[in-house]
Amino acid sequence: ADQEVCEVPPSLSAKVVGSFAYLTVKDRMPTILTKVIDTLHRNKDKFFEEYGKEGIEAEKQTIALLSKLRNEMQTDKPVVPLTDGLSDAETWNRYLHGHQQSEGDQESVSWFKSPWLYVECYMYRRIQEALWLNPPISDYDVFNEGKTLSFLESQRAVMTLCTYLEDIKKKREQLSKKELFEYFRKLLQVSVWGNKCDLSISAGKDNSQKTDAVDSLCSLQPFILVDDSEVIWSALTSGKSQGPPDNSAARRLDIVLDNASFELITDLVLADFLVCTGIIHEVRFHGKSFPWFVSDVTANDFHWTIRQTMATNHRWISKCGVKWQSHLKAGVWSYHDHPFWTLPHEFCEMAAAAPDLYAALQGSDLVLFKGDLNYRKLTGDRYWDHAISFGTALRGFGPAPLCALRTLKGNTQVGLQPGEGEKLSSEEPDWMSSSKYAVIQFYNPKSEQ
Ligand SMILES: O=P(O)(O)OC[C@H]1O[C@](O)(CO)[C@@H](O)[C@@H]1O
Ligand SMILES: [Mn+2]
Predict the structure, then answer these.
(1) Which is it for strands 366-370 and 333-336: parallel, antiparallel or unpaired?
(2) Residue 247's pLDDT band (boundaries 50, 70, 90)?
(3) b/e per residue, 328-337, with b = 16+ CB within 10 A?
(4) Whose CA, among 304, 370, 371, 433, lies 20 to 30 Å from 286?
(5) Radius of gyration of the chain measured on its C-alpha atoms
């Protein structure tokens, strides 16, 4: 069908009192800032040990900047340009200026009136500004404690998942294509449900994986609103499989990561399954270049997690970790953190704002986008009708066949059956923000949707 011609709906914002965006800006974001300030307070001695009184002074200044930021947010002061002169500051400030123009009545960009997507991303960039303006604690990850704790509390789930992967690996030569698909389907679901473990939605409260991720799949199945697993599988296994697998048949998967700890493990397990069964030959992982949305993966988290699994004294976890480290060493796996992922842009702006990244993704056979924030950026975080197609909401973004794996934590959801969204709203008003529902949603720019 040709792309439905439609108006681009307005962006979600905290303007709508009582909306999830409003409650996020009014309650959750200040809470996250308060927790960051507390974390800095609690680590005062560490800063002193490490840096002497310079460290104490830096900690004090950082707290002052974050308290000022919290006050600006809670009293809806104008959003102000960044002053840390970092490479992306200019892009951020140009984007801010653009918003000031497009807000029409020249009202300054404000926390409660401007697009939620922008102000929430902006808050995390301002947290970094506070750190970067205060060496020697500039590279301190204020979210590290939460991510580490969440990982350590998920160890039982990590154990069962790595054991499950080992079982598959042992019998992979005997598996039929159909059996392979069944395992793929399961690990795709484990990866999407791993997205529940996110510290931003819980405003930092423990949100680690307590249950066995594989056993709970059947009970969670009904809550997957869109499941494109089959078409994803055929996109991965069709076409190039004819004839001897020469390197032109080499298939590349890109995973745009979301949260660290258990969710990252589910992504590494999925990637390892696809590589060890010969379906995929190269995996590129995309993380964040600085701490983001509380639990998102940074380079430090990525490499720490692999080292941690190698060192775990559980035979299958450590075996997985050793394998993953060897994939990295061999270049079969690689980690990337382009600055674009920590800018406020909707993904339909990527080709213009980050042409190098867009071109890199065009070389992929499948790009998996994990989590809710990525889904909000894919669809522009707008009040779309739930029944418009995913392709329409992407508004031209399509470097390669892509799939969104997200649990719903924000009021944007497209690609549902007519009436389905309204039915859910009448039964469960918070269906889009409870992270109880999920989608495995595919789009292929090369084929008519
Ligand atoms: O880690 P995820 O799945 O991107 O979730 C982050 C989500 O949590 C929230 O911060 C909840 O407010 C959303 O704004 C955001 O989309
Ligand atoms: Mn996240």
Answers:
(1) unpaired
(2) very low
(3) beeebbebeb
(4) 433
(5) 22
Residue showing tokens 């984007």: 95
Residues 408, 377 contacting (CB under 8 angstroms) = no
- 89 touches 344 (CB < 8 A): no
Which residues does a 6 A CB cutoff place in the pocket of ligand 1? 24, 28, 120, 195, 198, 200-201, 258-259, 293, 371-373, 376, 409-410
- Enumerate the domain spans of the chain: 20-133, 143-241+248-443
Contact between 170 and 246 under an 8 Å Cβ cutoff? The reply is: no
In terms of pLDDT, which residue wins out, 237 or 26?
26
Angle between helices 116-132 and 53-74 (to 10 degrees): 160
- Residue 335 forms beta bridges with which residues? 285
Determine the average pLDDT of the residues in 345-349. 97
The rounded distance, in Å, linking the Cα atoms of 48 and 81 is 31
Omega within 30 of 0 (cis) for the link into 136: yes
Nearest to 284, CA basis, from 357, 346, 339: 357
What's the fold here for domain 20-133? Transcription Elongation Factor S-II; Chain A (1.20.930)
Nearest CA, atom 5, ligand 1: 372
Tell me the CA–centroid distance for residue 201 and ligand 1, in Å: 6
Q: Does the domain at residues 143-241+248-443 carry the CATH identifier 3.40.50.10880? A: yes
> Per residue in 173-196, pLDDT tens?
999 999 999 999 999 999 999 998
